[in-house]
């Protein structure tokens, strides 16, 4: 197999700068727009109505607030296809934060008030759901614990499997690369104004497994090349060689997976299935950043750490 001759370790500052630049952009969006939590995490209620024609988001918010005397968040989705694909409707999602669910009478009152303002819109309830805030916060905390526990277990797994190449340091660097992926997925939700919900947790856990698999392939090649090239081979040469040998495989795997998820995203967009698109879009970003971090972040970080340890040993002997 033909291998590329890319000096990954020597170009590490470029790779780190790219990641930091994207993080800064995401942080700016986060400061400006804040973090939106879905009712699954913050608690509250949500009603979704279908309607015809055009409505104005600000007007809908004022009408609902005047009717219910509660703060609301309104999102409008246009040209949403039905499940059978034969009809197209516009949907408006109305979210309420708080502890009380929205009764049927309130739903009807909202629809009536909206109908007065938009008599030709034909508002109809599509779905209604509510979550207790305590349960929502508890669910969010458990999800964060699951992610943290996953990272800890991954460190120990890599430490045991790759003891011959500095297992613990390899595990820590791999998890740092995984945290890079988690941050990128988080900023995807922020930049595209997608509320954090169970899709966020699903994407994060999926990307952790996907990115780790790619990193382990590289570590396995490093371990094999350490045996073939000898213990005196510099870590930068060892890692550059190993990454170049697995680079084509990483690209092909990421490309195939990205194409599959992109197809799912397109289908979700065409049929207006928001639960699909809010999962597929961050997944597409996660696949790209997972491949990137495995190749451009984990390897150089590993070399930097090994060089640091070698320098400390040399200074101790001196």
Task: Walk me through what this model shows.
By secondary structure, the chain is of the alpha+beta class. The chain has two domains: 12-38 and 135-317, Multidrug efflux transporter AcrB transmembrane domain (Multidrug efflux transporter AcrB transmembrane fold, Up-down Bundle), CATH 1.20.1640; 44-131, Alpha-Beta Plaits, CATH 3.30.70. The chain is 69% helix and 11% strand. It contains nine helices and four strands, in the order H-H-E-H-E-E-H-E-H-H-H-H-H. The chain has helices at 12-33, 39-42, 57-68, 104-117, 133-161, 167-191, 198-229, 235-270, 274-317; strands at residues 44-51, 72-81, 88-96, 124-131. Strands 2-3-1-4 form a four-stranded antiparallel β-sheet. Helix 1 (12-33) crosses helix 6 and helix 8 (235-270) runs antiparallel to helix 9 (274-317). The longest helix has 44 residues, at 274-317. It is elongated, with a radius of gyration of 25 Å. The chain starts with 11 loop residues before the first helix and ends with a helix. The mean pLDDT is 85.
Secondary structure elements and their pairing?
Blueprint lengths: L11 H22 L5 H4 L1 E8 L5 H12 L3 E10 L6 E9 L7 H14 L6 E8 L1 H29 L5 H25 L6 H32 L5 H36 L3 H44 L1
Helix pairs in contact: 1-6, 3-4, 5-6, 5-7, 6-7, 6-9, 7-8, 7-9, 8-9
Can I get a quick summary?
The chain is an alpha+beta fold. The chain has helices at 12-33, 39-42, 57-68, 104-117, 133-161, 167-191, 198-229, 235-270, 274-317, and strands at 44-51, 72-81, 88-96, 124-131.
């Amino acid at each position: 197999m033909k291998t590329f001759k890319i000096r990954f370790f020597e170009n590490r500052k470029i790779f780190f700068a790219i990641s930091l630049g994207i993080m800064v952009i995401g942080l700016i969006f986060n400061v400006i727009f804040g973090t939106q939590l879905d009712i699954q995490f913050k608690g509250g209620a949500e009603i979704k109505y279908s309607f015809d024609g055009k409505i104005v988001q600000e007007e809908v918010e004022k009408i609902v607030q005047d009717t219910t005397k509660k703060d609301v968040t309104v999102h409008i989705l246009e040209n949403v296809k039905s499940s059978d694909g034969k009809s197209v409707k516009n949907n408006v999602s109305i979210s309420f934060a708080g502890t009380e669910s929205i009764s049927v009478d309130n739903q009807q009152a909202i629809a009536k008030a909206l109908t007065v303002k938009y008599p030709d819109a034909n508002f109809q309830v599509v779905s209604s759901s509510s979550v207790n805030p305590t349960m929502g916060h508890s669910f969010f905390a458990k999800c964060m614990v699951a992610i943290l526990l996953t990272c800890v277990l991954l460190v120990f797994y890599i430490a045991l499997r790759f003891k011959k190449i500095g297992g613990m340091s390899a595990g820590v660097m791999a998890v740092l690369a995984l945290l890079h992926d988690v941050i990128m997925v988080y900023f995807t939700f922020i930049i595209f104004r997608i509320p954090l919900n169970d899709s966020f947790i699903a994407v994060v856990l999926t990307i952790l497994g996907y990115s780790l698999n790619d990193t382990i392939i590289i570590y396995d090649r490093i371990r094999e090349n350490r045996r073939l090239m000898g213990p005196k081979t510099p870590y930068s040469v060892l890692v550059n060689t190993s990454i170049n040998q697995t680079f084509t495989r990483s690209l092909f795997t990421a490309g195939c997976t990205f194409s599959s998820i992109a197809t799912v995203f397109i289908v979700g967009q065409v049929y207006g299935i928001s639960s699909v698109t809010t999962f597929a879009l961050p997944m597409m970003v996660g696949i790209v950043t997972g491949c990137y971090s495995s190749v451009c972040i984990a390897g150089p970080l590993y070399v930097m750490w090994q060089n640091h340890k070698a320098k400390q040993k040399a200074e101790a002997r001196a």
